[in-house]
């Protein structure tokens, strides 16, 4: 990304920063990593302590917070008509940790001070009550994503280490995070790291990418992140990070109840699955399906491709897939048919799938999938991440990088010969037994005929038995349907782990469908 001359920092920032001068410094990942390492040598200090009382949740509720709106004409870089603009979120309500913002060019950087005039406060009467050193809650990026001369929302970084991006024609769905620490562990609370400081790279007029740096901080660790975001039909983000674990003394000084770190979730994704075509747990709702993602896709180190449909069981489920070097994983929304959602307010058929592609070998580890039980769609109840088996020593720099694809697969394919549907119900002859229909479709499968069909290879864990396994050609769309009939063992209360793949002459010709069936 090209940056303008070092002296050309944003006029809006200069006017709002008054006494804050630009510093001669080169902002890069190593610069931010040094700052993060300094943090890691001290106990964690929450920025919540810096939040003014008038912005705390007991004084600023949801309705009042919604009245506070950023004035678009005050967006960073808008006055210079640069390709990317930045709008800031006001701190308060749920967003209790003020975030420090900076702007940088090739050789200079300067703080972006909190400015009340950037906001319309509605009827809240908060004008002049928020100190100038408060900081922001986060920011959104704007770009001409869908139409020329129309600045659309490209993404937002708001709350802890959460962020969301959009490609062309997409609507917000799942989120990503910087790190997930001890997510899904039952003997301790999850730790939520936060982005505390940002450096926003001022773009040149011809730039098609934007570069951002951030410090991530938490009780257990501190780290530095670099994001290079390229908008498009599929928006691509290259992420590089350096993490420093704190030593036990600093961790206990910040939180005496903290247990030793167990899982270090890299490149975590967070989504929502309430119910879908595979759901046996039904809800009283007019819509056929409600979800931001319908499955986890994993490309293993040996080339095997796993498809794990998501589910919303009555209890929390935590599953992991061991790998010696994962090639990629992601939470996908494969169902793109509006008729299967029938929601004219939430465009679930337009939300992005997010695919994570590691750069370099991440080594041995586990892909984790956490499914929390929920009774409504307002909870993000799905989490996926990679947990390395070998954790770094305290203060040892732990480096990793990956590329994110926010896509509807209109301009790329993440997998071929895929699972297109999973449907489950009772066996009509015995309600205690389950009938499972799995649909497969793809270019390799299209070449087979009813006279020479592929073979279904299916298995399940010892607490269940597959007593029927048949393959049929679907005459309506040309796909292949596997019909499995499974009987849980008597008295079983644990999930049954199932797998199925299509093969021809000993060659695997489809994704591997894998599923956890839970007793009611």
Largest sheet: 16 strands, mixed
Q: Name the shape in a single word.
A: globular
Q: What gyration radius follows from the Cα positions, in whole Å?
A: 25 Å
Number of helices: 5
How does this structure look, described?
There is one protein chain. The chain has 520 residues and is mostly beta strands. Helices cover 7% and strands 41% of the residues. The longest helix is centred in the N-terminal third of the chain and has 12 residues. The protein is globular, with a radius of gyration of 25 Å.
Descriptors:
16-stranded mixed beta sheet; 520 residues; 10-stranded antiparallel beta sheet; mainly beta; single chain; 34 strands; globular; disordered N terminus
Short account of what is shown:
This protein is mainly beta. It contains five helices and 34 strands. The chain has a 16-stranded mixed sheet that branches.
Layout of helices and strands:
Layout: H1 11-17, E1 23-24, H2 29-40, H3 62-67, E2 69-70, E3 85-89, E4 100-104, E5 108-112, E6 119-120, E7 138-143, E8 152-158, E9 162-165, E10 175-177, E11 179-181, E12 194-201, E13 210-217, E14 221-230, E15 235-245, H4 248-254, E16 264-271, E17 273-275, E18 290-291, E19 295-299, E20 305-309, E21 317-323, E22 328-332, E23 353-359, E24 365-371, E25 382-388, E26 398-407, E27 418-427, E28 430-441, H5 443-446, E29 455-460, E30 464-473, E31 480-488, E32 496-504, E33 507-508, E34 512-517
């Amino acid at each position: 990304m090209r940056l303008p001359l070092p002296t050309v920092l944003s006029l809006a920032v200069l006017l709002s920063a008054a006494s804050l001068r630009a510093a001669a410094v080169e902002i890069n990942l190593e610069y931010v990593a040094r700052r993060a390492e300094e943090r890691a040598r001290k106990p964690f200090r929450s920025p919540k302590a810096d939040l003014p009382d008038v912005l705390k949740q007991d004084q600023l509720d949801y309705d009042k917070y919604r009245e506070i709106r950023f004035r678009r004409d005050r967006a960073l870089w808008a006055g210079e008509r640069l390709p990317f603009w930045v709008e800031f979120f006001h701190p308060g309500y749920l967003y209790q940790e003020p975030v420090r913002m900076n702007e940088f060019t090739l050789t200079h950087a300067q703080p972006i001070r909190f400015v009340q005039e950037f906001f319309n406060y509605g009827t809240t009467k908060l004008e002049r009550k928020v100190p100038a050193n408060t900081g922001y809650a986060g920011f959104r990026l704007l770009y001409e994503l869908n139409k020329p001369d129309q600045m659309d929302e490209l993404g937002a970084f708001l709350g802890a280490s959460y962020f969301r991006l959009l490609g062309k024609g997409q609507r917000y769905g799942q989120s990503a995070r910087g790190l997930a620490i001890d997510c899904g562990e039952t003997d301790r609370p999850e730790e939520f790291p936060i982005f505390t400081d940002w450096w926003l790279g001022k773009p040149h007029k011809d730039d098609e990418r934007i570069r951002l740096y951030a410090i991530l901080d938490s009780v257990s660790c501190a780290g530095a992140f670099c994001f290079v975001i390229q908008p498009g039909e599929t928006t691509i983000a290259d992420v590089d990070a350096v993490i420093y674990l704190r030593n036990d003394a600093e961790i206990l000084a910040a939180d005496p109840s903290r247990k030793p770190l167990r899982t270090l979730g890299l490149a975590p994704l967070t989504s929502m699955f309430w119910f879908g075509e595979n759901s046996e747990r039904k809800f009283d709702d007019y819509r056929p399906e409600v979800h931001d993602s319908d499955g986890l896709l994993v490309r293993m180190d040996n080339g095997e491709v796993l498809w794990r449909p998501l589910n919303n069981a009555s209890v929390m489920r935590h599953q992991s897939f061991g790998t010696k070097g994962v090639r990629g994983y992601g939470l996908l929304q494969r169902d793109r048919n509006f008729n299967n959602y029938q929601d004219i307010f939430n465009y679930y058929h337009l939300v992005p799938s997010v695919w994570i592609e590691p750069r370099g070998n991440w080594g041995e580890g586990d892909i984790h999938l956490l499914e929390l039980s929920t009774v409504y769609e307002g909870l993000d109840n799905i989490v996926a991440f990679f947990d390395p088996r070998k954790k770094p020593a305290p203060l040892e720099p732990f480096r990793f990088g990956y590329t994110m694809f926010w896509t509807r697969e209109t301009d790329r394919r993440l997998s071929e010969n895929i699972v297109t549907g999973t449907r489950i119900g009772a066996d009509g002859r015995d309600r205690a037994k389950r009938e499972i229909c799995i649909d497969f479709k793809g270019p390799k499968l299209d070449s087979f005929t009813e006279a020479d069909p592929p073979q279904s290879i299916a298995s399940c864990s010892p607490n269940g038995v597959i007593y029927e396994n048949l393959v049929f050609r679907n005459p309506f769309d040309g796909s292949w349907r596997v019909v499995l009939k499974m009987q849980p063992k008597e008295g079983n209360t644990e999930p049954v782990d199932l797998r199925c793949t299509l093969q021809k002459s000993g060659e695997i010709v489809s994704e591997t469908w894998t599923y956890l069936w839970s007793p009611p």
